[in-house]
Structure formats: C-alpha cells, structure tokens
Amino acid sequence: MAAQARTEFSSALNAIAQESGLDPNLVLDTIKQAIIAAYKRDAKERAETIEEDQEFDSTIDSETGEARVFKLDGDKKEDVTPPGFGRIAVQTAKQVILQKIREAEKEAILAQYEKRIGSLINGTVLRFDGPNVRVDIGRTEAILPPQERVPNEKFNLNQRLTFLLKEIRETERGRELILSRADPEIVVKLFAREVPEINSGAVEIKAIAREAGNRTKIAVFSTQSGVDPVGSCVGQKGVRVQAVINELNEEKIDVIPYSENVENFITSALSPAEGVSIRLNEKEQVATVVVPDTQLSLAIGKEGQNARLASKLTKWKIEIEGAPVEQKVKVDEVEKETDEQTTNNPEPESLKPEPDNNEK
Questions:
Q1: Model-level pTM greater than 0.85?
Q2: HSE of 339 in the Cβ direction (CA atoms, 13 Å)?
C-alpha cells in the first residue's frame, strides 16, 4: 500500500505539473505554506493558543504526500502534527494544486491574448458585473469598463459585438483583459479591416479625432500615385465607410484628405463647411477662420462639435470669427456677432444683393 501511495502521489503531482506547466517544487512549496495555515486554523478551532511571533515549518513527502508540521524554537524543531491531520493536509494540498492549475491556465491564456493587444476581437455579452460588462471572447472572459463604453450605448445579454482588445490590467480579481468601444483606435482597426489599401500600405490614416457615439473625423493619405485615399476608404457607393458606421451604431464619420499644407488641412477638417479663409499664427499655432454666413453653422457644428474635432484632428487651435473652439458657442450667438462685423465692414460691390424695385 505504501508503494502504491508513493506511486499515486508522485505520478499525480508530476502529471499535473506537466499539463499545467507548473514547477513541481513550486507546487510543493506552496502546499507547505498552505498546510501551515491549515494547521493554525485547526489549532484555533481546538482553542489552542499560538503566539503571533511563533514560527512554523512543514514538510511534505514528494513520494507519499505525507505532511508534518513543526514548531521552531531556535535550532530545535518540535513535531506538532496533530492526530488525524493527514486528512486536512490532503484536502489543503488538493485545493492548492487546483488553485495553481487555475492560475497557470489563466496566465497561459492571457499570454496568448497579450499578443493580440491593439487588435479587434469579437465577443458576446455575458452579464453585467456592477459598472462593468463581462464579455465572452472565446477561451476566456474580458471586461468592458464604463470609461471604455460609448455613451448611451446599450447592451443586451448574448449580444455579439466587435471590440478593441485594449490592454491587460491589474484588478482586484487579478490580471484582466480590458476591452474598449470608445477608443479611437477601434475606428482605425475597423477601417483597416474594410479597406484593403490600408492593409497593403497604399493608404495611411494620418490622424483621427473622435467623440465616441457622435462623430469621428479621420485624415487619410495615399502613398501611391493613382490611389485616391478618400475614395478607397469610402468605397463604391459608400459601402466601406457604411460598414464601419454600422459597426459603431450609426456614428457619423468624416473621411478627409490629409495635407502637409496646414491651411488646406484645416479647410478639409472643417468640412462640410465651404468657402472658408484662414489666417495662421505659427508661433501660437492658432488658426483664425472666416466663414461665410451661410456656412457658419456647418463650420461650428452642433455645440461646436465640428470645429472642436477639426482642432483635435489638426492639432491647431481654431477660432471661428473670434469664438475659440474650446467654448461651446451657440450658433445664433456667433451669427449675431458675424452680422455686426458685416455691418461695420460692408461687402464689396460685387457681393452686394441687387436692390429691389422699390429702392430704385
């Protein structure tokens, strides 16, 4: 029986270590510490007093699995293993081994997903865990924290979505995979998935500005003559950009041409507004933009969003008729200011409207 016990324990330990990739000696050391903790709990239940600074040691036979506990007193060791402790030691060893296996398996899975950080991944909504959404991504679960969610985006159980695998983060539950649908990089990766010219390197996304759930502007550039970067991203009849829009729940996306010429870049970034004129302050990196009255609301956008995104995209501070883009300027207030400026600065004759017959 003793030989059989030796064979069973040793074989089981080695098999577990091999399957999970654990070092058998590491497992034994962890079991020893767990056995000491189990001994202290058992002593407490038996109402035995143990000094806080009392040191203990334990041994475990790697062949038979027999465990002993010793009280340390200088160079002396006193065997304090209580009768019947073998059963407790076996249960403790089993729990430790199972826990180590779970940890090893999780680390192995995380190591696989770590290579995919920054890429798109499909997942299914499993449950709502406080403010977080837990998502099944295949071999494991990942977390979508509230700050990585698109505002006002609602989820249903078993709903399948595309996410950006953003990072691995330390949490109260250990290392967790973190997903995102709010990060601008998800838009970049979605375009890369839909546009072959981006994957081939013929088209590059030079800049992106996003207000998740509302609107995104991306600036694209062609590295090959004859390739239209905007047309490549939009696709025939808009099929490519529409695929990205559908994935992002109808978020508006403006695709504009990138230019090294700052004036041209800012002009494109302010689209769909047309007929703008720009004065640049290179030192302060401020662009003052004069916009025709008919285009003012388009240039500014709802609550200043169009101008704000253009500023983020170009990395220039944009002022429209003296209104900084950082302010949420109401369109009617800016139009009133523009009307006053027009009164003080009459239009050229060629731009004045024809007088009606009553004025003739």
A1: no
A2: 6
